[in-house]
Amino acid sequence: MKHLLVVAVAFLSNAASAQIYTAQGSMAGEVTAHSVLLQTRLTTIPGPTLDDSGDIPGATGVVCFEYSLRADFQEVTRTEWMPAIAERDFIVRAEVTDLQAEQRYHYRPVFGTSEQNARPGTAAQFQTLPGGNSPKPVSFIVGSCQNYAFFMYGKKGEGGSASENDRQLGYPSYAAMKALNPDFFVGTGDIVYYDHPKKTAAQTLPELRKKWHEQARFPRLIDFFATTATYWSKDDHDFRYNDSDLLKDKQPLPETGIEMFREQMPIHPAGDNTSPTYRTHRINRHLQIWLTEGRDFRSPNKMPDGPDKSLWGKEQRQWLEQTLKDSDATWKILISPTPLVGPDDAYKTDNHVNLGGFRHEADAFFEWLTSNNISGFMTICGDRHWQYHSIHPSGVEEFGCGALNDENARNGVAPGSKKGTDPDALIRQPYTYAEPTGGFLHLRVVRDKSTPALVIEHRDDTGAILNTVTK
Question: Which of 23, 396, 454, 463 has its CA 20 to 30 A from that of 251?
Answer without folding.
Answer: 23
